[in-house]
Amino acid sequence: MTIYRVRGWAEFFESAKSRTYKLKSQSYTPNKHGLGYRMMVRRPNGAAIFGAWRAMTDVLSRQTAPRQGYCTDTGRADGLPLTPAMLEALTDIPAATFADMLTVASSQVVGWLDVLPPQDAQYPHGIPVVSVKYQPLNPSPLPSPSPLESPKTDSCTEPEQPPARVPPHKRVAFDKSSGRIIGTDDADLALLSEAYPAIDVRQTVSAAGAWLLANPTKRKANVWRFLTNWCARQQERGGGKSGKPSVGGPLELRTPNDVRLAIEAKEARRNALPSDANRGDHPRHAEWVAVTTEIRELRKRMEG
């Protein structure tokens, strides 16, 4: 049987004080509507799935300390897994909705649940693993091979499985030497484009990297989460897709402080270039010219 575990339970569903409670009468839950939330609720039954998720985390919050986010009857890895039918009995939400929720929440797109490998799921309830070999009811003898023929043996080899894709929160990182966010692939960019259609995703990723370079004391451990939150903020500001490019990238520069931050980000990007990039024969000279032009236009906007 499969055991699920809520990812980051201690970080996102507990507080320093709640960890001291043996039992809790209230639950703590994140209130950011990031990429995982959007990919969940945009499904045809997304609202019901999200409701099932909240109900399940409420159930887990009532377990005795130390709570670790295991979806079992005891809240421990060796407990009996909570099935959709058991969750229905505890919450009156249909088991089918819980089944959909477990599938969606454990997908790479959402990533709210970790699925423990079967070998890590040890139960004290003695759930047996039985290997059954099929035998026909009336087996008929096989013909003997011809003396001129060599016996044929069937080799049954399992097809080679492709390597599992590393989740983006473990892959996406910030490279301080270049001032860029690295590790994103086409699938990641496609997901961000679908979740935040009003922004230019590639330019937004570039702007987020420039901000991290300009703010070394505010660098993030989970760069993927930072990037999705950054995209969400730009989407809420109206994005940057229009008929003409925006000088400040996809950000909507509404205040002088926005312009100042954009200038700092562009200057940090220019400072990350090689010191001789201003030479006309340098391979990155065009990039240096583009960034310098943007800085000049932003300064004019600040002065005006």
The overall strand count is 4
- Tally of contiguous helical segments: 11
Alpha-beta content class: mainly alpha
Strand content: under 5%
Helix content: 40-55%
In round numbers, the mean pLDDT is 78
Number of separate structural domains: 2
Molecular shape: elongated
Q: Separation of termini?
A: 66 Å
Can you summarize the main beta sheet?
2 strands, antiparallel
- Oligomerization state of this entry? single chain
Our Rg estimate from Cα atoms comes to 27 Å
Unreliable sequence segments: 119-137, 242-251
Element string (H = helix, E = strand): EHHHHHEHEEHHHHH
The spatial strand order of the largest sheet comes to 1-2
Topology, please?
Elements: E1 3-6, H1 9-12, H2 35-41, H3 46-61, H4 84-91, H5 95-105, E2 113-116, H6 168-171, E3 173-175, E4 180-182, H7 186-195, H8 201-214, H9 223-236, H10 256-272, H11 285-303
Antiparallel strand pairs: 1-2, 3-4
What does this structure look like?
- This protein has 304 residues and is mainly alpha-helical.
- It has eleven helices and four strands, in the order E-H-H-H-H-H-E-H-E-E-H-H-H-H-H.
- It has helices at residues 9-12, 35-41, 46-61, 84-91, 95-105, 168-171, 186-195, 201-214, 223-236, 256-272, 285-303, and strands spanning 3-6, 113-116, 173-175, 180-182.
- It has a two-stranded antiparallel ribbon.
- A hairpin with a 4-residue loop joins strand 3 and strand 4 (180-182).
- The radius of gyration is 27 Å and the shape is elongated.
- The N and C termini lie far apart (66 Å).
